[in-house]
Write a structure and sequence with these properties.
Blueprint lengths: L28 E6 L2 E6 L12 E5 L1 E3 L3 E6 L4 E11 L2 E8 L8 E4 L3 E9 L5 E6 L14 H8 L14 H6 L7 E4 L11 H9 L3 E7 L22 E5 L1 H12 L4 E4 L1 H9 L10 E5 L14 E5 L6 H10 L1 H13 L10 E5 L5
Parallel strand pairs: 1-17, 3-12, 3-14, 4-11, 14-16
Antiparallel strand pairs: 1-2, 5-6, 5-8, 6-7, 7-10, 8-9, 9-10, 12-13, 13-15, 16-17
Helix pairs in contact: 6-7
């Protein structure tokens, strides 16, 4: 069927958008979507829904302080959100300003260092290419000569646009998974925010295996779909890396009859991008712009843990492909009626793959 963006809209009362995390990481609710069956649970019940030999695949990316405020040479105010740090002196970013800066112009960020606009990039030119200007020329650097260190010192945590408060002390830890270790993301892989050390220990004790990959979530995850027919949409690209040990565990899990459970849509996108028709995956670094919509055949992932997603978003299209379009529409209507908390700091879902039920 030919689906449009409006096919993925749903009414969401603003008060259901979670502005703060639950008091405890595993204290959120969990909606188990098993075909047409919808079961209200607590996230703490997750270990009882898994069995020995299952494999949880986590995204271990770490959120960097990617938001900056600054000034153009003309004095105009700008807000810069890094999409990706390419290397020590180059980055790709979104820029909000009254007038878009032109190539060759400079921006001073955090009243500390300058970047130059070198061009536009992205599927429709929505991002700006930035170059760090003469890092040795400013006393503000204090020996920091690369964008990674400058982001850590001068940047701000990039909370999603639907979270209305500025970053607070609690956000520094709670908008980061407990297993985050590879810096590079500008948005958290939020399904993983529900896991704490105690739950990971419980899962390990009962024989549930864990593996990791890295996909650096970009600012493009919040980009709206600007076309009517979803077949016309082009996804932004993101970098990922699957270790050989993870690829081996996936192959062993499937061979032994276990289930591969992706923790978050980022893990799923990486696994399916690197996947083979036999359920194995290629290891190593790669890039993906995979756009998963209803009709897609999943080769690697058997179950998905995820949060509730934005109306008309590519991630809502992804979960509709995984669990079934009608099932997801019913699940979201149920979640609204039952007052589940939505988006990054909200509640979670455990989705069964529709063709496996």
């Amino acid at each position: 069927m030919s689906l449009t963006v409006d096919d993925f809209d749903f009414p969401l009362p603003p008060e259901l958008i979670a502005q703060h995390p639950a008091p405890e990481r595993s204290g959120s609710r969990l909606l188990h979507v098993c075909g047409q069956q919808l079961i209200n649970r607590q996230f703490a019940e997750l270990p009882g829904l898994l069995r020995a030999g299952d494999l949880l695949v986590f995204n271990d990316t770490r959120v960097i302080k990617a938001r900056f405020f600054g000034q153009k040479e003309t004095g105009g105010q700008v807000e810069v959100l890094l999409e990706r740090i390419v290397d020590a002196t180059h980055a790709i970013a979104q820029i909000r300003a009254s007038k878009s800066p032109k190539p060759g112009s400079r921006i001073k960020l955090a009243d500390a260092f300058e970047v130059m606009i070198t061009g536009r990039t992205g599927a429709s030119g929505e991002f700006f290419a930035l170059e760090l200007v003469d890092p040795g020329a400013s006393p503000c650097f204090h020996g920091r000569s690369n964008l990674w260190e400058l982001a850590e010192q001068f940047g701000k945590l990039p909370l999603p646009p639907y979270i209305e408060h500025p970053p607070e002390g609690v956000d520094e830890t709670r908008y980061q998974t407990v297993y985050a270790r590879e810096p590079g993301a500008v948005a958290a892989p939020t399904a993983g925010l529900h896991f704490d050390e105690a739950m990971l220990a419980t899962l390990n004790k009962q024989g549930v295996q864990t593996a990791f990959l890295t996909l650096h979530v970009g600012a493009g995850t919040y980009q709206p779909v600007r076309v009517d027919k979803i077949a016309d949409h082009r996804m932004h690209s993101e970098c990922f890396d699957i270790p050989a040990a993870t690829a081996e565990l996936i192959a062993t899990t499937h061979a032994n009859g276990g289930r591969v459970v992706a923790v978050g849509t980022t893990s799923l996108r990486a696994l399916e991008s690197a996947g083979n028709i036999d359920g194995t995956v290629h290891s190593g670094p790669a890039e993906t712009s995979i756009f998963i919509t209803p009709g897609y055949r999943f080769n690697v992932v058997d179950r998905l843990i995820t949060n509730f997603h934005l109306p008309k978003s590519t991630l809502l299209m992804l979960v509709s492909a995984f669990a079934g379009y009608d099932n997801i529409r019913a699940a979201y209507a149920h979640a609204v009626a039952e007052r589940y908390r939505f988006f990054s700091y909200g509640d979670a879902m455990l989705l069964e793959k529709s063709d496996a039920i």
